Amino acid sequence: MVILVTGAGGYIGTTLVRRLLDAGHRVIGLDRYFFGQERLGEDVLANPRFELRIADIRDVEPEHLRGVDGVCDLAALSNDPSGDLDPELTEAINHHGRVRVATAAKKAGVKRYVLASSCSVYGTGDNSRLDESSPVHPITTYAKANLGAELDVLPLNSPDFTVTVLRQATVFGMSRRMRFDLVINIMTLNAVEKGKLFITGGGRQWRPLVHVSDTARAFERILTAPASDVGGQVFNVGHTNLQVISAAYTVREVIPFPIDVQVVPDDPDKRNYNVSFEKMSKVLDFRADITPDQGVREIYEGLKSGALSPEPWTSTVNWYRRLLEAKALVDRVILNGKIL
Question: Which of 137, 178, 255, 281 could bond 123 through an S-S bridge, CB–CB 3.0 to 4.6 Å?
Fold first, then answer.
């Protein structure tokens, strides 16, 4: 297959591109590459079955998708704090930009479209397992934009255009474009660097969790599944649910030296969702394999060996803030009639 991956330079995208190439597909990696093309890896960039495209999804036209068999649409401002930096931009990219990609793909004759959504659309819930039919209560700009994209792309599903939404749990684990702003990852980093974990928001809020390799595998499974099984469907993908304080204890148990866990007085974190992954298991015989403690162990080993380090670009919200500040500076210079 010829698969176009938007957001190919991101945390999940770099992992997915590599997996699709390893499976023998041709891959087009479309992204602005704000975090650097080099995150893909020299082997991917040199692969004859990989094509790099530097583009914004808000500019995608049907002609950009001719000859493509499937689209994995991952391009987004990629977490709740990042979405709140610029709500209008988040809505423009995460909602309308992805609807634009889906619409262009259908016009271009693409057969498969998979939207990367998030379990954050559930927002708040009781302690029961929320499934794909449960009410959604998005709280953040990021979650609302994801839900808007879902609602607008699912009606595009047709016999000739299979649309599927993948609601991903909070992702963890090592990636070429590493992120240290996700709960398991940042806890592991703090444990290694500081020997302490500070739990805010009370720590009793639930989070669904999935390893980055497992969610990449889920995208591939959707692309190759019978259209009758996945067309017009929403699937939660994840391995398990943990309360934030339990995630901290998981990290403490894996790290081979004493770690102090402290619950810090703070406003309660209103995001709280305990999610069921049974539908994907029953319909597609898919189960996430990698546990949170395995993810902690691989990150710890990566930090210890020097394969991982907390570079500026590993914190998504801080990196976006830098980019937005740089853009504001350029805009002010142009407005004042100065030449750079």
Answer: 137
Which amino acid, 145? A
DSSP code, position 178: -
One-letter amino acid identity for 124? Answer: T
Q: What are phi and psi of 28, to 5 degrees?
A: -110, 120
For residues 164 and 154, give the distance between their C-alpha atoms in angstroms, rounded to a whole number: 7
pLDDT of res. 64: 94
User: What pLDDT was estimated at residue 338?
Assistant: 45
pTM, whole model, 2 decimals?
0.92
Q: Sign of torsion, CA 144 149 152 153?
A: negative
Helix/strand/coil for 313? helix
Question: Residues with Cβ < 8 Å from 110, sequence gap 6 or more?
Answer: 4, 65, 68, 69, 70, 71, 161
Residue 36: exposure state from Cβ atoms within 10 A (0-12, 13-18, ≥19): exposed
162-168 vs 206-211, strand pairing mode: unpaired
Which regions of the chain are under pLDDT 50? 329-340
Residue 234 amino acid letter: V
What does the alpha-carbon distance between residue 106 and residue 267 come to, in Å, rounded to a whole number? 45
What's the one-letter identity of residue 168? Q
- CA 65 – CA 103 distance, rounded (Å): 11
Are the beta carbons of 165 and 136 closer than 8 angstroms? no
Among the listed residues 337, 312, 309, the one whose alpha carbon sits nearest the alpha carbon of residue 325: 312
Contacts 24+ apart (CB under 8 A), 15-19: 15/175, 15/176, 15/212, 15/213, 15/216, 16/72, 16/74, 16/216, 16/219, 16/220, 17/44, 17/50, 18/44, 18/176, 19/213, 19/216, 19/217, 19/220
